């Protein structure tokens, strides 16, 4: 398990220039880009004035940014993509938001509340949003695929899929070049067992033979409490329990933490905490996903999990048998094979003893050449694509 069972909040440091205008990241925004707006932000106060002030100011910026990003979204999924984009912009700030003035700030009950006159750069925000959408589309073309399922356990005892959390998880993964596939089987398992074993997750994931996922990122988010503070804001706490499990190997990792949220309604406060749980868990576990779907080391031997695609095959029976034997001779364990609609022969493998895709690719090309077949490698960073000449 990673981390302790505690309320986790990020520290946000916002540079301030005391010359009448506050700029973020050392840059200012062209004042003529858009009109300023008065926005309110809030954060839990636990005795650290500056920390709570920075978090409340970030919350105000995020509120404004979500409104701006919202101008470019067209679907429910894009709404949650916009939430992620807004989080990223708020965390970096540079070139997106300028603080014209602080209207009021202070502690109200257990909440730090701040009102700020903010100015957002609509042009930069639109560019950032469109860039992130483009990255997500590009990631969807990559073969790194993870099954995703998140289930929420409400205060009222209701258990249901948390579609917004799934969207947020998926957007974070897509930024890392990982395509996601929602897995209904895993979601049903989570609805009955919030902490299933890695073996059970693998079994459920393998039932879906229509996708090429080789890992599962599953999670449950349990609402613990929500109450109204004397400030008028609601405070919430949730517990996120997430797992990353390799489908074809024995890899597994878990992440369990508690997160706090603040909002003007109980629903907003709970969503703020759930959003943080989904984001933090994904950031933590997704770094390991690339390793899960690429390399693992057992007993000092590298095992490379990848796919091989052979294009230009003319005799399916003979060529598929030939390449299967060739790969097995190169210490590759074949886990799945099949022909794609475009005629490409796809082979999922776990290759033992290879340090890189390049080395394995060269071995396949040489072995094929020794048998009179010329293969041309096509560009790919995460799988092997070969064209028969």
DSSP E strands, number:
17
First-residue to last-residue Cα separation? 50 Å
Total count of domains: 3
Proportion of residues in β-strands: 25-35%
Q: In DSSP terms, counting alpha (H) and pi (I) runs of 4 or more, how many helices?
A: 9
Main pleated-sheet profile: 7 strands, mixed
The average pLDDT is 75
Classification by helices and strands? alpha+beta
Q: What fraction, in percent, of the residue positions are helical?
A: 25-40%
CATH architecture of the largest domain: 3-Layer(aba) Sandwich
Principal-axes shape call = elongated
Give the low-pLDDT segments: 1-34, 72-78, 136-143, 290-301
Mind telling me the CATH class of the largest domain? Alpha Beta
Radius of gyration: 24 Å
What series of H and E elements makes up the topology? EEEHHEEHEEHEHHEEEHEEHEEHEE
